[in-house]
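Hi D.,

Good news: the full-assembly prediction came through. Inputs first.
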Amino acid sequence: MMAERIETCDVAVIGGGPAGLAAALGARRAGAGSVVLIERDRTLGGILNQCIHDGFGLFLYKETISGPEYAERLIEDVARESIKVEAGAMVLDLAPDRLLRVNARQGYRLIRAGAVVLAMGCRERTREMIEIPGTRPAGIFTAGSAQNLVNLQNLRIGHEAVILGSGDIGLIMARRLAFEGVAVKGVFEILPWASGLERNVRQCLMDFAIPLELGSTVVEIRGRDRVESVVVAKVDGALAPVAGTERAIPCDTLLLSVGLIPENELSKRAGIELSPLTGGAVVDETLMTSVEGVFSCGNVLHIHDVADRASFEGFAAGKRAARFAAGERAAARTVRVSAGSNVRYALPQLLTAGKAGVEWSFRVTRPMRSVSIEIKGRTSGRIYARKKFPRLLPSELQKLKVSEAIEEDIEVAGHE
Amino acid sequence: MSERPVVDRLTCVLCPVGCELEVGKDAAGEIQVQGNQCDKGLPFAVEEVLHPKRNLATSVPLGGTAARMVSVRLTRTVPREMLFPILKEIAKLRPEAPVRRGQVLIPDVLGTGADVIATRSVA
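Then the structure:
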């Protein structure tokens, strides 16, 4: 039997969306000699290709452009650098020693990377995951798959639609369907607040007089071959449907915008420790996971609110991966970071003791007004950073930086 | 100022910060805005209450194909009531490949001063 030939590279980036493109660029610009960017789809860009609405690029390019334009600009930057792009290639396995098994167009290949950047993005929660009772007719789509069918495949997905969940893709699809002449009967959100950005509530729903019903959900899907109606009901404080509040809404289409899940199947195969709070890897201030030399960024690490921030994280992860590939090693990561009251998670979760100038990403658990976010030492009770926000929403990813060095475990918490 | 009638409460959509703006009128009938964290908030709120403006995005099939799509948007915002008339104009488009990102497909659509441009390149 012939020995399998193993190719080598300094940095391998898995996933060619807003985070992965930036990671490949970040690695090159930080001096990595050979960078391979592996993308499962036939073209680079990831979900940006179907996000034709504007609002991208405000932070990265200082102007508001559409998803495809944002992707093309990054792809052009990648083309200018000597980055090896492998599109239409699927990473089947990632071993802890950074050996990638890749099913590429030319066949099965092995790549040993000096460092790996995970940028696989996320996927949508489905009807099965939220267990909506009823029949199983055609006409039920996740918002993102509907977006793909409408924007990239020129298909009409229905005539009368109900949207469950107020995530950004659902809100954007409400407007998109209104543009295409589909009657959008309403958006139903189980929580007492919208989970998408406020600007999307105004521009995508209020502009088109599409009702948003908070504190309600779909409790049944009816129809044999095609959706004929959905039954909605109010929910109580424990998010359980309230008997007697049900009403049927005739429609032929149900869109689900009920959350995103970081796509970490490869990370699990590599034995990377995942956080139950983010669904992504536990990382340190260099975005390195629990497996040496494997870094994570973008929506596979934690769900972002805007693509620009996923790209910024990508640039940082790529740069750190290049340094790791060049032999740079961090000291032991002994400081543990936890989320305190009103904070759902804070990232990074681990820190090298004595490290200064680290910035945390965090999200709050509920909408809050005049809130003070504190980063506090768990032993000394010392406040390392405090910032006041007039208003914080769970839909917004926020940042807080600590300039001084930290030697003890810390907690990120919010107080009204 | 406390008896100032509130005309509208709205969220500034110029950036993801999303300031909550309260638009009212003072005794002289002048529009007053509160809650903006930057200078852009004031003209935004006045315009949003009096003459809301929006961009739009859609996609059109390439000429001679059914499903090879080119996404498009406007180069600037237009009065909100122009969105559907503009969509009707865009629906007539069947651009021929190759299309370049930024290529003008309809200049000054319906006299709004906004161009309809392609937002992706298709070879």
